Amino acid sequence: MPTLAIATAIAATGHDPDLPPLLAACQALGIPTRALAWDDPTISWRGFDAVLLRSTWDYTRRLPEFLAWCDQIQQHCLLLNPLAVLRWNSDKHYLADLAAMGVPVISSRFVEPDEAALPVLEAWLATQPAGEFVVKPCIGAGAEDAVRYSPGQLFAASNHLAGLLDQQRSALLQPYLASVDLQGETALVYLGGEFSHALRKEARLGQVDHPLPERIALSNASPVQRSLAEHALAAASRLLQLEEPLAYARVDLLEASDGTPRLLELELIEPSLFLDHAGAAAHALARQLAARLAASAAVRTRTACA
User: Fold this and answer.
1) Terminal alpha carbon distance of the chain
2) Domains of the chain, first to last
3) Triad 9, 14, 16: Cα angle to 5°
4) Phi and psi for 4 in degrees, rounded to 5?
5) How far apart, in whole angstroms, are the C-alpha atoms of residue 229 and residue 217?
């Protein structure tokens, strides 16, 4: 029977609510499965047929090391999601790629380390409707180093932006959409390319680096939201020339001032899938993994016999 490793991180031990239902679902299908930390140097990964990335939540602070580890994994077994996806999705410049392919993305100004923070910020704000805005790094997870500012906090915002640029980190400027305070984000979860469930996530991005508690509840995705999410996934698939659907994806949307949804994030590396909120989702993911493992094992057998 092909074996599966679910990759987490030492720092995430005991903090991933997706892990228990997924392990139970894999066990119910008879898939030999272990949850192991990607950054545990004592683990021998060659004994597994596939590695599913899940709560590798520290990867943004160790990106070169993480991608090198993923490269090693993919050389000898099935990596889900694949390395090309991880390289692209680990940097928020991917939003510009999707926007260029017609995906409705939240207005974004990318700022590079060779630019001057204050002039860029002033020029960008002059093109935006008056209101709050967000400064965040292009490589980062969740609310890490992402801060919400009011128009009167130009000095603080420019210092934050300059600090990111001084660290040779590209940054991103985006308007803060007021709808998030009333409606939160809508997260659409796709498993094996098929829509699974949607959730409402209350915003946790406070002002001046004071994150707010995040509250999650199952929600309904409208046809317009579904259409946008599937547009984004199809665009990513074309761009990356993927031969099969992603094992999982989470599409985070916000409502713009005109009432239409906009893409906030396309999460393809280690998003929480909120399996504990959707009872059938863990089993659907496990069934998909079993099929992928069987197909991968069959290919290896044919190759070995050739």
Assistant:
1) 21
2) 4-83+277-305 (3.40.50), 94-103+183-202+213-268 (3.30.470.20), 109-175 (3.30.1490.20)
3) 70
4) -125, 135
5) 19
Among 188-192, 197-201, 213-217, 239-243, which is the least confidently predicted range? Answer: 213-217
- pLDDT, tens digit, 9 for 90 and up, residues 72-115: 999 999 999 999 999 999 999 999 999 999 999 999 999 999 99
Amino acid symbol at 142: G
Confidence band of 183 (pLDDT split at 50, 70, 90): confident
Beta carbons of 134 and 125 less than 8 angstroms apart: no
Are 124 and 149 within 8 A, CB to CB? no
Confirm if 202 and 187 have CB atoms less than 8 A apart. no
Provide the residue count of the chain: 306
262 — phi, psi (to 5°)? Answer: -135, 145
pTM above 0.90, yes or no: yes
Closest to 54 in 3D by CA, of 17, 89, 84, 85: 17
